[in-house]
Amino acid sequence: MQKKTHLLFVFLLLLFGIIGIILTYTIDHSSSAYKEVRPNSGSDKGNLAKEESSEITLAAIGDILIHDRVYNDAREGNRFNFDKMLDNITSELKKPDLLIANQETIVAGESIGLSGYPAFNSPHEIADSLKKAGIDIVTTANNHALDRGVDAQKLSLDYLNQIGLPHVGTYLSQDDQDKVVVLKKKGIKVAYLAYTYGLNGIPIPEGKEYIVNILDKKRMSSEIQKAKKEADVVVMMIHWGNEYQRFPSNEQKELAQFLVDEGVHIIFGSHPHVLQPIEWVKGKNGHKGLVVYSLGNFLSGQDEEYRDIGGMVTVTVKKKQLGKQTSITMDAPSFYPTFVSSKDEKDYKMYPLQVSEHAINKYSPSIYKEIMEHMQKEGQAE
C-alpha cells in the first residue's frame, strides 16, 4: 500500500511539474508577444484532426518622401535610377515575407511635371526601384495624396497597377475602396488597411469620397470587422501624429487603443518623419496589438536632426490550425535602423545605421545604441 501511495505521489509531482512548465511558457510568451485563439465554428467530434502550422515575417518601412533634390540626384540622362540609393540595404529588405512602405509622394511621372515640396510628384522609377528592392505593397493614404489633384492621383495609381505593386489607402472607384486588400503568404492571409488624418486642407471632390481613406472611427471599425472575416492578421497603416515629435501624442495613443480594441493586430504609423517607440497595447478582450507609432523617414531629402534616421520593423506571425480552431501568435518585433547620407543635396545613399560612418560623424559613436533604446521607450507621450 505504501509503495502504491509513493508511486501516486511521484506521479502527481511529475504531472504538476509538467503543467507548471506549460503555464510558465504561456505566461512568459504572452508577456512579450500576442496570442489569439479562434474557437471552432463547428464540431470536429469523431475526427482525428491533424495540426497544421506556418509562419511568416511581416515588416514595414517608413516614408518614401522624394524631394526634388533626391530625384535630381537620381537622374541619369532621360531616366532616374534610385537603385543605387538602396543598394546597401536591399539584402535586408528582401528578407521579410511581406514588406510594406509608406509611398508618401505620388508617382504620376514626368508627363505632368515632377515636383518637390510642398506639392509632390515623383518619377515612375521610384516605384520600380521599391518593387525591385523587395517592397510588396505600399500605403498611399497620407497628407500628400492629392497634392497634384485627382487626375494626378489616378496616373499614380494606374502606374502602380501597371507594374503590379499592390497599394492601399487611395482608390480609383467606390468598388476599389470597398474591397479589403489581402495578401496571402504560406497559407497566412494578411489584410492591409490604411488611413490618413487629412490632406493639407485639399478638399475631396463631391461624389468622390472614395478617393482616400480619412480617419473616421465608424468607417474604420466597419472595415476592421470586414477584414477580420477575410484574413488571419489585420495590419493598419496610419498617417497620424505631430511632425518631428519623437514620442506619440495622447491622440495617437487613444486611437491606437481604439484600433486594438476593434481587433487590429499590428499598427504601423507614419507622418512625424522621425522614429517613435514601439509598444504592445492590451485590448479590451485581453488580446494584444503591436503599435509602431512612427517609422520615421526611410528615403527623403530631409537631413535635419533625426529626420535622416529610419528603419524596418519586422514581426514573426505564426498560425496553427487544428481542425476548425485557429491560433495566431506574434513574436516580439525586431528593428533594423537605417541612415540616409548625403552631401550638398547630392549623393543620397542609404546605410545600415549600425555601420554608418556618416551617421557616427553626424551624431555620435553611440547613435545606434541611442536609437535602439529610444524605440523601446514605450508608454511615453508628448
UniProtKB/TrEMBL annotation:
Keyword vocabulary terms for this entry: Membrane, Transmembrane, Transmembrane helix
Pfam families: PGA_cap
Record field: transmembrane: 7-27
Coiled-coil stretches: none
Top-level division of the source organism's lineage: Bacteria
UniProt xrefs under InterPro entries: Capsule_synth_CapA, CW_Biosynth-Accessory, Metallo-depent_PP-like
SUPFAM superfamilies linked to this entry: Metallo-dependent phosphatases
Domain Capsule synthesis protein CapA residue range list: 57-302
PANTHER family assigned to the protein according to its UniProt record, in alphabetical order: CAPSULE BIOSYNTHESIS PROTEIN CAPA (PTHR33393:SF12), POLYGLUTAMINE SYNTHESIS ACCESSORY PROTEIN RV0574C-RELATED (PTHR33393)
Family per record: Belongs to the CapA family.
Name recorded for this polypeptide: Capsular biosynthesis protein
Species this protein is from: Niallia circulans
